[in-house]
Each structure stands twice: as structure tokens, then as C-alpha cells.
Design a protein that fits this description.
This protein has 384 residues and is an alpha/beta fold. The chain contains 13 helices and ten strands.
Length: 384
């Protein structure tokens, strides 16, 4: 059976909203990590079969197939095509899946996968509300008769979905604040100990992620108002709005031999599943169960898990249902501390996961993230 290998993985620092990366054009942000990816891997850019990038809200500077634009902005060969993927927050994780599937099918040998997002320039939800006069919570499906027949006219939003999870899984605000504080503490420890140094390609004199808050406390979190009246969630329990990019090089066995590349991990499993689109954010739970069954693994076989911290209850519910060891989940912090540049986060998580497996000498890493529409991708990689 053919294999799909991860050859290299790099990312930009994650910039906070209005921070040092906010003025960088998304094409230049993506071009920056693509240049570093090719340089670090030693691959011939002319040998790349395709560039698959994730991006959400592809309007304005992110429109026009940003994958293609990033590649060209990096100065690479015009004959290499690019395509942009939108599976909401999991867009660049899906980009990795498409790249690996192309390699596994034998229709490609060398594919770049990644993602880019500048949320400072293009606010979250811009594509959903542009020119149609809808509120963010109404979504693009508000006028669909078929949708109304199936799901009624209830509000559909990530905030409501997170509240529904917290209520259904019995997750208290206190537990969520403890988790959020730990995310910042883990991220700060990772930064201070240099764990991210090998994966980050500095940009605009920014060498580290801007999101982690060194001075945050449980007391400060407890003083924040809920996002909805009577709710449990606050801004401290949600992912930060951010800017960033990340990219990976996926290769076949043939490409490894032909180009003298050095594999760092192999794609052990990839899948995606859907669930309730109203509750929206709980799909990583059944998707993980499905992936483990298909891969013939147990949760205890997973040495490191990266579960996107869109909201604290998403990860806490996942831990409860899967029985995963919390110490193995997001060991270097997550999006609550590091930020969540939507279309880039999947590739950022995969990059961090790979480097953490190498740092610790572990074998299996699992990545999953909740996505709009009630979906989730799961990728399991095995360190070589």
C-alpha cells in the first residue's frame, strides 16, 4: 500500500487582532511560510503537483483563490496550480487530507498543504453577511426553505453551540476557567522553553505568538461578563481572533526517493464526520471514535492530541467522552492562548503536533477540530 509522508511543516507566529501581522497582505503571509517550507525541505518547487490552502471568508484580499496567489507571491513556478478549501475552522486540516489523498491515490507525488487567515483585515463571518443583510447568527442558510423545514428558525451560532455543549456535558464556568488558564500557562511554558522555535518562521520582527497572556488570573476571568445573558461562556473561554499562516509538504514514497527527501511522519489515518449542525461544535467526539475504530487504535495509544480550543467546553467534553489523559491534550496550550486564525489553524495544529512528537520521542499524534455545519476532521500521524 502506498504511503503519504510529512516532509516538512512550518508556521508563522500567530499575531493577535490588530497586532504586528495585521497589516500583512494574506498573500504575503502565505508566501512567507511557503518560501520557508521549500527552503527547509530542499524540495524543487517546480516538482510540486499542487498547492492546497485553507481559508475562510475568502473576500477582499483573501479572494481569488488565495492558495494560488500565495504561491505566485512567493515567486514560485507559474505552472504549479493552487486551490483554496473551505471546511470552516478545519479548512487547512482538510487541505492536509486532500494533499495526502492525492498522494495515496497515486495521482500526485508532491503536494503543499496549508492555510492562511488575516482576521484583522477580514473580520470573522464577513463572507456570511456580505451583501445579504443578514446577522452573523442567522447565517447564509436563513432563507432556505429546506433548512427551515429541517431545523426551524432557531439561532445557529458557534456561541450558542458552545453553550449547549457546556450545559449538556455539565461543564461549569469554574472548570472552563481552570482549563483556559492552563492553556495560557502551557503556551507560556512552551514559548519560554523554546518548544516553538523550530516550527516558527519569524515575520516582521515577530518571533513568538502574541496571544498568550502572562498576567491573566482566575480572578480576572471570573470578573468577565458572559457572552449571553445567563450563559457560562465569556471571552476568556473562547479562541482569540488572530492572523497567521502555516504549510506542510506531503510526499509519496516515489517523491522521497526521487528528490532525496527525509520523511518525518506518515499519515496513519484521515477522516471527517458530521453531526448536529445546530449544536455544531461537538462533532470531534463521534469523529474521533470513528477514526480510532478505522485506525485500529485506542485513545490510550494516542501520545499527543491537538483538539482545537474554539471554546473551552469543546475540549473538555471531548476529554470526558473519549477518556483521554488531559496531560496529553494540547500540552503546549491551544487557541484560547495561542489564537485561532481560522483557515490556518488546522495546519498550525498539525505543525505543532509533529514537532511535539519529535520533541518527546512519541509515536502517535491525533488532531481534531470542530467546524461550522457540525463537522470535524480527524488526522492521526505516526512519527518516523
Amino acid at each position: 500500500m502506498s504511503e503519504a509522508f510529512i516532509i516538512e511543516a512550518v508556521r508563522s507566529p500567530v499575531g493577535k487582532r490588530g497586532g504586528a501581522l495585521s497589516a500583512v497582505h494574506p498573500a504575503d503571509l502565505g508566501a512567507h511560510v511557503l518560501t520557508a517550507l521549500i527552503d527547509c525541505s530542499g524540495a524543487d518547487p517546480a516538482a510540486v503537483d499542487d498547492v492546497v490552502f485553507g481559508c475562510v471568508d475568502t473576500i477582499g484580499p483573501q479572494a481569488g483563490d488565495i492558495a494560488r496567489t500565495c504561491w505566485l507571491a512567493a515567486g514560485f513556478p507559474e505552472e504549479v496550480p493552487g486551490v483554496t478549501v473551505d471546511r470552516q475552522c478545519g479548512s487547512s486540516q482538510q487541505a492536509v487530507h486532500f494533499a495526502a489523498q492525492a498522494v495515496l491515490s497515486g495521482t500526485a507525488d508532491l503536494v503543499v498543504a496549508g492555510g492562511v487567515q488575516n482576521m484583522s483585515q477580514i473580520p470573522i463571518g464577513s463572507a456570511m453577511t456580505a451583501g445579504v443583510g443578514l446577522g452573523f447568527a442567522e447565517g447564509p442558510f436563513a432563507g432556505s426553505e429546506g433548512w427551515r423545514r429541517r431545523y426551524g428558525t432557531q439561532v445557529v451560532s458557534q456561541f450558542r453551540g458552545a453553550e449547549m455543549i457546556a450545559e449538556q456535558w455539565g461543564i461549569t464556568r469554574d472548570a472552563m476557567e481552570e482549563f483556559a488558564l492552563a492553556s495560557h500557562q502551557r503556551a507560556i511554558r512552551a514559548i519560554d522553553s523554546g518548544r516553538f522555535d523550530r516550527e516558527i518562521v519569524p515575520l516582521s520582527d515577530v518571533t513568538a505568538d502574541e496571544g498568550p497572556r502572562r498576567t491573566t488570573t482566575r480572578e480576572a476571568m471570573a470578573g468577565l461578563p458572559p457572552l449571553a445573558e445567563g450563559g457560562r461562556l465569556t471571552a476568556a473561554l473562547a479562541a482569540q481572533i488572530s492572523d497567521g499562516a502555516a504549510a506542510l509538504l506531503i510526499a509519496s514514497e516515489r517523491a522521497v526517493r526521487k528528490h532525496g527527501l527525509t520523511p518525518r511522519a506518515r499519515i496513519h489515518h484521515l477522516s471527517a464526520r458530521g453531526e448536529d449542525p445546530v449544536r455544531m461544535l461537538s462533532a470531534p467526539i463521534p469523529a474521533t471514535a470513528h477514526a480510532l475504530r478505522r485506525a485500529g487504535l485506542r485513545i490510550d495509544d494516542v501520545d499527543v492530541a491537538e483538539v482545537n480550543e474554539a471554546f473551552a467546553p469543546v475540549v473538555l467534553a471531548w476529554i470526558k467522552d473519549t477518556g483521554a489523559d488531559p496531560a496529553r491534550v494540547n500540552p503546549n496550550g491551544g487557541a484560547i492562548a495561542l489564537g485561532h486564525p481560522l483557515g490556518a489553524t488546522g495546519a498550525r495544529l498539525m505543525t505543532t503536533l509533529l514537532h511535539e512528537l519529535e520533541r518527546t520521542g512519541a509515536r502517535f499524534g491525533l488532531q481534531t477540530m470542530c467546524e461550522g455545519g457540525g463537522q470535524a476532521n480527524v488526522t492521526i500521524i505516526e512519527r518516523i
